[in-house]
Specification:
Strand content: 5-15%
Distance between the termini: 47 Å
Radius of gyration: 18 Å
Structural class: mainly alpha
Helix content: 40-55%
Number of helices: 8
Shape: globular
Largest sheet: 3 strands, antiparallel
Length: about 230
């Protein structure tokens, strides 16, 4: 077994075969690929959406390409957040992103978010794992963990997340500072394990939205068993 680096990562499995992720810095339009999942999340359909669009599509409950505040509220409820957290997140998300994604100069009276233009809502002081077109950059996902996973490889605790969001701050980008901490804080609450760590796999799946689908499905299954 061994790992060879050349224009990307070559991983040798137990049988000696190689899986190669070529051009590791090349943005992926529709899949959240990394060294372990070169074709993205297994079984996750991209539906010809960018990775950033897929990240948000979970909250588009009727699949019409437009996310309304009540859909965001219901989406977070399905993930297990209480009604107060859901309401606050709904206000923050739609208040900050609706106009940026609007296809018109006239603001939406319903504070709708348009998936087609979601890349316009990308803020600064982030990890740059999404580019300005909403594509996924594998090398920047790897950078998160190679730089900040200081206790356990490929896992982040709350202290690591704080250091990362502090290091990613752009000068005078107050909105980006707060947005980044909020996003990573919500993800940490949603996907941390019993030891308080956020895994690389959970983070990667968050970027393409498959984490939300998984968490909602598991919560629904647990509710059925309880009944």
């Amino acid at each position: 077994m061994g790992i060879r680096v050349f224009k990307g990562y070559s991983l040798w499995d137990l049988f000696g075969s190689a899986v190669t992720l070529w051009e590791f810095d090349m943005p992926r339009a529709t899949v959240a690929a990394d060294a372990d999942y070169v074709n993205g999340t297994w079984g996750h359909k991209h539906n010809n959406m960018s990775v950033m669009q897929q990240h948000c599509a979970f909250f588009d409950l009727d699949g019409d390409g437009i996310i309304y505040p009540w859909e965001t509220y219901r989406g977070f409820r399905s993930l297990g957040f209480n009604f107060i957290a859901c309401f606050v997140l709904m206000l923050l998300i739609h208040g900050s992103m609706s106009y940026a994604t609007s296809p018109s100069w006239i603001p939406s009276l319903f504070f709708a978010i348009h998936l087609e233009n979601i890349h316009r809502a990308k803020h600064g002081s982030d990890s740059s794992t999404y580019d300005t077109e909403g594509r996924f950059i594998p090398s920047n996902l790897e950078n998160i963990f190679s730089k900040y996973a200081r206790t356990v490889p490929d896992k982040l605790n709350s202290k690591d997340l704080w250091h990362m969001t502090q290091a990613n701050r752009n000068a005078f980008d107050f909105f980006g500072w707060m947005a980044s901490k909020l996003e990573w804080g919500v993800l940490y609450i949603l996907a941390k394990d019993d030891d308080g760590y956020l895994s690389k796999e959970a983070v990667r799946c968050c970027f393409d939205g498959s984490l939300f689908e998984y968490c909602a499905r598991m919560r629904k299954a647990s509710a059925k068993k309880a009944d």
